[in-house]
Specification:
- By secondary structure, the protein is α/β, with parallel strands linked by helices.
- It has one domain: Rossmann fold (3-Layer(aba) Sandwich).
- The chain is 33% helix and 19% strand.
- It contains five helices and five strands; from the N terminus they run βααβαβαββα.
- It has a five-stranded parallel sheet, with helices on both faces.
- The longest helix has 11 residues, at 28-38.
- The radius of gyration is 14 Å and the shape is globular.
- The mean pLDDT is 92.
- It catalyses: 3-dehydroquinate = 3-dehydroshikimate + H2O.
- Its EC number is 4.2.1.10.
- The active site is at 23 (proton acceptor), 98 (proton donor).
Length: 138
């Protein structure tokens, strides 16, 4: 049985409330329950933090024992050399995910410190971006 983890970065705990025109009205907890039911043959763990160091610690913790990591580092995607380095230092493949199309947003969101070390990047498909990432591992 595949073992995956979804790791979400800052402000993604506000999904369902935050800018629903961009992120939708479904909470991540509601979405996660749907996904776990749909992919019941896959173990899907979840972690969210607004703190960069906690995200790095979690990557180190799971980066040698999971089959895949689905990472939405949110704003840290565009600023965190540390998260990029953490991905480079682990063995578990990482798929970078974004709910919105970051290239259709502000210029600073067009650069990612995650992408060069990721297995792939999925963006712009709303919460379905996570499901596409799960499918890439199975």
């Amino acid at each position: 049985m595949k073992k995956l983890i979804i790791i979400n970065g800052p402000n993604l705990n506000l999904l369902g409330k935050r800018e629903p025109n961009i992120y939708g009205s479904l909470t991540f907890t509601e979405f996660l329950e749907e996904v776990k039911t749909k992919y019941s043959d896959v173990v899907i763990d979840y972690f969210q933090s607004n703190i960069e160091g906690e995200l790095i610690d979690k990557l180190h913790e799971v980066g040698f024992s999971y089959d895949g990591i689905i990472l939405n580092a949110a704003a840290y995607t565009h600023t965190s050399v540390g998260i990029g380095d953490a991905i480079k230092g682990i063995e578990t493949p990482v798929v970078e995910v974004h709910i919105s199309n970051t290239f259709g947003r502000e210029e600073f969101r067009h650069h990612s410190y995650i992408s060069p070390n990721a297995k792939g990047v999925i963006l712009g498909f709303g919460l379905q971006s996570y499901e596409l990432a799960i499918q890439s591992f199975i």
